[in-house]
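queue> pop job 88
queue> type: inverse folding (structure -> sequence)
queue> payload:
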């Protein structure tokens, strides 16, 4: 018998290939053309990230993109038809956008959050100490506080004057602009500091930023550096110290998104949790023309502090939008029934297997960078607390979308069972009775000033969201 050079597979091996799940890198499944598409797509994503570091900036950019693509403010519309595009702006911090379907009584909804961990100014931030001008901050969301020292920071936000004038402030993103920083303690004097436990290596009250050093030359002024800072702010922006009580000023890393690795296969940037899902779901929504079921993008604030507040997913903003929508499309389906019968994806990131800290993961149930968008049936912590646990029927429905559209995906859990966990907006979407599951790229160094994703996973998320809207 002639040697073919390739032995035929045994019956058991054929059966093994059918029965056993053997994940592999999605980079091996993409064609050369698809790889080029990935790099082109993520170039746009990096630009969006750089311009969307705070929730206000992110929503501003989302609305700008929606308008350029034919979406109209819901307050300017009196009636709709299939294929019409509309959006609702909630206090410049949350946006809901929809492409009306031929069956307007059912939604395919993808929700993502626009806020990220950061440092906020306290109501009375400005003070002077040691000949330096400083400002006090209050961290927002779950952070390792020590990661924020010695990191160049940019300042973004709004201030309202006594006359009610809104003042926008943006300092530190351009090369020719000053930055801000929290100076850490030098190793030579850090003996006591290094004996602290990690959560207290840097205390919350030690996150005070440097903002000035030049004093005003006037002996009648007691705090000369503080006064010089306030004088500068008054000259540049017309604000006084009391105006900080009517302000939202946020400090974020001043660095821009960058490629990582010899092959430029990854992205390192601040705020990828969760703007990676904001961008991918937004781009997917823009591709939808006239869907069978109405496609809804929910870009929401406050997730990092539990989704509470008037612009968070735990509020009634989604229900309010549903009422507006039902009235606008003249639907015979009541609002409660619409929400209950809809399908949703909570588009959020999960932790990726970190080779330097393998012990926090269950390797058989972890997500890996480059292995595709990750689906999580549940999140939370311990005994599945503070989460939504998706039903097997809905998981099967989601898997059918992957199979039909040949999308690379993976699934797992957010670390070992009793080591921690985390919540998403899934439990607030599912409270209406709608089907829901978490899905998004996995991330290394989540909640740090510089998070890492794989470009392949970013693109896979986009493919899933687009297919879901069209399902």
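queue> result:
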């Amino acid at each position: 018998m002639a040697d073919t050079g390739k032995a035929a597979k045994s019956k058991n091996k054929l059966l093994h290939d059918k029965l056993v799940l053997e994940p592999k890198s999605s980079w091996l499944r993409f064609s050369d053309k698809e790889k080029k598409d990935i790099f082109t797509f993520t170039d746009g994503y990096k630009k969006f990230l750089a311009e969307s570091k705070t929730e206000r900036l992110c929503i501003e950019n989302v609305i700008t993109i929606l308008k350029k693509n034919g979406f109209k403010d819901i307050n300017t519309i009196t009636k709709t038809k299939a294929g019409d595009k509309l959006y609702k702006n909630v206090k410049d911090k949350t946006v809901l956008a929809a492409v009306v379907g031929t069956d307007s009584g059912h939604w395919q909804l993808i929700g993502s959050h626009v806020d990220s961990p950061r440092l906020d100014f306290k109501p009375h931030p400005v003070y002077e100490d040691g000949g330096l001008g400083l400002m006090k901050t209050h961290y927002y969301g779950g952070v390792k506080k020590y990661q924020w020292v010695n990191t160049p920071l940019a300042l973004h936000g709004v201030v309202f004057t006594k006359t009610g004038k809104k003042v926008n402030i943006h300092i530190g993103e351009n090369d020719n602009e000053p930055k801000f920083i929290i100076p850490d303690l030098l190793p030579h004097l850090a003996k006591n500091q290094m004996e602290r436990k990690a959560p207290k290596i840097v205390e919350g009250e030690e996150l005070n930023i440097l903002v000035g050093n030049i004093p005003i030359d006037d002996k009648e002024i007691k705090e000369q550096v503080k006064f010089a800072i306030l004088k500068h702010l008054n000259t540049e922006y017309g604000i006084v110290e009391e105006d900080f009580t009517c302000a939202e000023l946020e400090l974020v890393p001043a660095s821009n998104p960058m490629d990582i690795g010899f092959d430029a296969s990854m992205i390192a940037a601040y705020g990828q949790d969760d703007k990676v899902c904001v961008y991918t779901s937004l781009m997917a929504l823009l591709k939808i023309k006239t869907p069978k079921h109405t496609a809804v993008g929910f870009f929401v604030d406050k997730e990092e502090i539990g989704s509470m507040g008037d612009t968070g997913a735990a509020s009634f903003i989604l229900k309010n939008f549903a009422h507006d929508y039902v009235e606008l499309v003249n639907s015979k389906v009541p609002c409660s029934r619409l929400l209950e019968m809809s399908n949703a994806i909570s588009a959020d990131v999960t932790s990726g297997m970190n080779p330097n800290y393998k012990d926090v993961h269950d390797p058989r149930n972890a997500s890996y960078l480059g292995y595709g968008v990750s689906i999580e049936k549940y999140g939370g912590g311990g005994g599945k607390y503070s989460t939504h646990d998706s039903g097997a029927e809905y998981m099967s429905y989601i898997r059918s979308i992957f199979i039909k559209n040949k999308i690379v995906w993976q699934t797992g859990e957010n670390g070992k069972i009793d080591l921690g966990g985390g919540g998403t907006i899934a439990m607030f979407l599912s409270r209406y009775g709608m089907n829901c599951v978490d899905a998004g790229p996995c991330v290394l160094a989540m909640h740090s000033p510089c998070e890492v994703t794989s470009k392949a996973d970013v693109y896979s998320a986009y493919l899933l969201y687009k297919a879901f809207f069209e399902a």
